[in-house]
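Training component of the fellowship. As part of building independent skills, the fellow (R.M.) carried out the full modelling exercise for a liganded target. The chosen ligand was 3-hydroxy-3-methylglutaryl-coenzyme A. The inputs are recorded below so that the supervisory panel can assess the work.
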Amino acid sequence: MTARSVGLPSTVRGDGLPERVTIWEVGARDGLQNESSVVDVAVKLEFLDRLADAGLSVLEATSFVHPKWVPQLADAEQLLAGLKQREGVSYPVLVPNERGLDRALAAGVRHIAIFGSATETFANKNLNRTLDEQFAMFEPVVSRARTEGLDVRAYVSMCFGDPWEGHVEPAQVVSVGTRLLDMGCSQLSLGDTIGVATPGQVEAVIGGFPTVDNLAVHFHDTYGQALSNTLAALRCGVTTVDSSAGGLGGCPYAESATGNLATEDLVWMLDGLGIQHGVNLDALVATSAWMAERLGRPSPSRVVRALAG
Ligand code: HMG
Ligand code: MG
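Fellow's submitted model of the complex:
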């Protein structure tokens, strides 16, 4: 790391904001699933270890999906076998169906996430199912996982716009999300898969749910709105925010999706607002700079670029 002019933002508490936010780090899954090359499992393990060292307590590790659909994560079993579990750190994985659940259980996973779509087209492209069929696929996954004592999160993708269908009605997001929560999921993450949301829309979608207590937000940064959208969600009372170290990310089945909100950019804003998060920014930046070297290109995160020199 080289010298930098400003290492920390000034802190000014905003009104009506949470005291603490849980950062749900998705770099190892959402980030690496979209790399053109397959990252070696040893590098993935070191990445996860360094992220845990930096203070992140929820590290989405990989996906138990079909290896032909996402070859970048075909090493899920190897990854789990090599993972050093730590006290106080959770390593959720994506699971779309019962085959994925069998694999996850065999690997000793305790926390899973199913991932639904708010739109018909993306359900088809990402899951090879119709919108209705996706629920039939998820139901036995959630019920078996709960019987096994696993924690289950649900994602809804395309909550704020879809590259094939265009505008997505908030009521449609609420309807899909409510069905997933009603299956027994403990949390619902609202995904802006292609990064088109704007803050007013975020308020409208969140405001359609009866409570924010079980909601999380998952913004991609395609149009540079991810941080503004996050602030809007925090003002609505959301306290779990998904982000990816260094801004890695995308979705292989949604071409216009670019990286997630960078965890460093999120941490900088949370520090400035006096919101606790438990992450050491220097250690995180060093990890993303290290990962950028492994991937052979600079991190898109503005904070990583400003601090790593
Ligand atoms: P399918 O082809 O319809 O599967 O794919 P199927 O049920 O017809 O089974 C066909 C064969 O695949 C069978 O094998 C199954 O055993 C096997 P055969 O009997 O023919 O030998 N199979 C599996 N093998 C390993 N693991 C599995 C599995 N399932 C079936 N889990 C499927 C359906 C859902 C599996 C496929 O569409 C898939 O894997 N999709 C995953 C796509 C994906 O991972 N996308 C990225 C994650 S979502 C995302 O990034 C968005 C998010 O970040 C939020 C946001 O940004 O909005 C979460
Ligand atoms: Mg995503």
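The panel noted the following from the submitted structure. The two ends are 7 Å apart (CA to CA). Residues 131-147 form the longest helix (17 residues).
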